[in-house]
Amino acid sequence: MTKRVLSTATSALMLAGITVVLASGNTGSPPHLAAAAASEPTLQTIDLATGAGAARGFSRAANDGPRTTARFSLIGATWADASATPAAAVQVRTRSMATGAWTPWQTLEADGPSPAAPGSKDAIQARGSTDPLWVDPSDGVQARIAGGTAPPPRGMRLDLIDPGTPAATMKPAAVTVPERPIPKVVTRAGWGANEKLVKNAPEYTTDVSVLFVHHTAGTNNYSCSDSAAIIRSIQAYHVKSKHWNDIGYNFLVDKCGTLFEGRRGGITKPVLGAHTLGFNSRSSAIAVLGNYGSQAVSRQVKTVIAQVASYKLGIYGHAPGGRAALVSSGSDRYAKGSTAILNRVSGHRDTGKTECPGNTLYSQLGSIRSIAAAGPADLTITKINGARKTGSTWFTRSAIRPYWQVDTATTLMDRYDVYVDGELAASVPATQGQQLLQLTPGRHNVRVRAVALNNRVSYASLAVYADATLPQFTSGPSVALRTGSLNGIVPVRLRWAVQDAGGLSSVVLTTPASADLGVTATSWAGSVSPSTETTYGLRATDRAGNARSVAAVRTPVLVPEDRAEQTGTWRSVGNSAYLDGSALRATTAGASLSWTFTGRSAALAFSRTAVSGAIQVYVDDQPAGTIDLRSTDTLYRRAVWSRSWNASDQHTVKIVVEGTTGRPGVISDGLVYLK
Predict the structure, then answer these.
(1) How far apart are CA 578 and CA 243, in angstroms?
(2) How far, in Å, CA of 379 to CA of 457, rounded?
(3) Which residue of 318, 485, 565, 600 has the fewest CB atoms within a 10 Å radius of its CB?
């Protein structure tokens, strides 16, 4: 391409050969930007096709003083015949109102004939156009047509758009959430759309089978705080300059990832746009503000595009990763009536001879499709409040609150359904990763289904046993005396039996000591203080957390040997090793001691030595066995025999000396019983 610039410093408009140079504005200090009241978008036009009287506000005389344009922030070139394509590039540079500096030359990108659907209201009186270029607030412009020998298209002009100021500051507006969540979007009211510009009612197509991705071209050096103004300018450009009914795109997204509602008609509806020549029917479009020929969009922007694709295509049951056949209404790539097989997420260039959406963004469409087409990834139930897990089953009393998460972005999710035993129990929005459930007693299957905007689903299940009943002690706690040392203590044994339909998680001894008894044990052996009332407490907890506590109270009583009824010959012996310092010794066969008491358990206290003999035991006049007291070690204060009963009652325990040959002697230290 060759460029012959006649002048870049003159303030006059001159036409010569194939180059047009336009300048406007003074070289003094720029005016300060003032806070403006609410105002309508405005259009200034400068004729590029002829020399005489070409520019409004511009003098034809080269020696005229410099003049300024009114404020504008977006610029484009348009021409009368919408089917015509310029043979040469239109380049512009503008002067910043903030700094007074001139920008470098920038090319206004032309995508070819108007993409408005034939016969639509957008196509009536449509003008051909380049893509608009956002230039920030400016008050001067220069233009040139570079390359080629053909004259500019008939009626070619520069269109300068000032977005005006909306009555309210742009704020992302809350939208009504239907069954499928609408993407978080700055509504038309939010970005200050001028609804007065839109003269006709929206038109609708049958469905959305393809989402076309565009870029608006121009600069990437805009501030995201200017995004609303850029979009207002694009709307004004599409309506005032291109003579469309409204902004052509269905959605727009800025480089920061903020999504904007585009053409009026309803985000949830298949609004007919003016964005992709020959393929506006059965499609929707999203345009990224900026130029992405050599610059990639961010991960955030990719996710927003994927979200819009999942939402719009998912409404009609189309998978974003699939392909669709669309019939062209006529484009520079597909003749009218021909069929194009397209990815459901396609670039503008897939249907037209254009660089849009830029080489780099176009190369990112594959990953955008993958994001949009992915199912809910790694659905995991992370915890359950109100339940305990044993093995693979969760146990609860009745109410549980499962929590879950997915690795898929929330913006790409539709909802979560919660089923209990195959019946839908709850359905919650994608922003809610938990749900309270009330379960009836018994075993249940709880299943969480994650539903993405693209209609793909994944599941996570868990088995839950609901148990509202407490563990049941079927016997005990019973306390009995046992054999062992009586040296300042009394050996006892605690017994019980407990069961639970859902299973036990623990049985613990709470008093007279603390001990984890496990869930299979049925007895505990310990020692307590003599002559002291003692509480024996047990607490059983089931897997659902239900707990029952039981207790028994017993007092061990020592009855000295000298209080027993005696027969035969017994001799008192003294030794500090004996209980109370004394005991009774007998060596004659047939000598007896007998104790009568009221209690639940009894134990006989004897000393054991290497020469101790044997005794016969009777309970309530019935033989209860023979005890040989011989021991290689001398053991004092020993419980050598015990017996227990289910209830407290009066009993008599009697011992009779056997008179064992060679070791006839026995030493009695009394009797202990539990009351």
Answers:
(1) 119
(2) 10
(3) 565
* pLDDT at residue 550, as a whole number: 95
Which runs of consecutive H residues, i.e. helices, occur in 343-424? 359-363, 365-373
The encoded tokens of residue 44 equal: 């200034």
Specify the DSSP element, H or E, that contains 500: none
CA angle 6, 8, 13 (to 5 degrees): 70
pLDDT bracket for residue 168 (50, 70, 90): low
Mean pLDDT of all residues in 565-574: 96
- The terminus-to-terminus CA distance of the chain in angstroms comes to 115
What are the C-alpha distances in Å from 286 to residues 247, 309, 444, 629? Answer: 12, 9, 46, 100
pLDDT of residue 462: 95
User: Which residues lie below 8 Å from residue 108, measured CB to CB, with a gap of 6+?
Assistant: 75, 76, 77, 89, 90, 91, 92, 130, 131, 133
Tens of pLDDT along 301-345? 999 999 999 999 999 999 999 999 999 999 999 999 999 999 999
Count CB atoms within 10 A of the CB of residue 144.
23
8: enclosing H helix or E strand: none
Q: Are 602 and 671 in contact (CB under 8 A)?
A: yes
How far is it, in rounded angstroms, from Cα 402 to Cα 383? 6
Cβ proximity of 88 and 240 under 8 Å: no
Structure tokens at 299: 């991960």
C-alpha span between 413 and 137 (Å, rounded):
39
| C-alpha span between 405 and 620 (Å, rounded) | 71
* Nearest alpha carbon to residue 240 among 291, 181, 194: 194
Interhelix angle 365-373/299-315, nearest 10 degrees: 50
Note whether 24 and 68 are within 8 A (CB).
Answer: yes
Backbone angles phi, psi at 268, to 5 degrees: -80, -5
| Distance (Å, whole) CA 73 – CA 289 | 14
Strands 323-327 and 622-628: unpaired
Polymer length in residues for the chain: 675
- Arithmetic mean of pLDDT over the chain: 89
DSSP 364: T
Query: Which residue, 220, 235, 223, is CA-closest to 188?
Result: 235
89-96/490-499 β-pairing? unpaired
| Nearest of 171, 196, 143 to residue 25 by alpha carbon | 143
User: What residue type is assigned to position 134 of the chain?
Assistant: W
For 560, the 3-state DSSP assignment is: coil
Structure tokens belonging to residue 614? 């044997």
User: Are 141 and 69 spatial neighbours (Cβ–Cβ below 8 Å)?
Assistant: yes
Distance, in Å, from the CA atom of 484 to the CA atom of 487, rounded to the nearest integer, reads 9
CB atoms under 10 Å from CB of 266, counted, come to: 11
CB-neighbour burial class of residue 320 (10 A; exposed 0-12, middle 13-18, buried 19+): buried
Q: Which amino acid is residue 651, in one-letter code? A: H
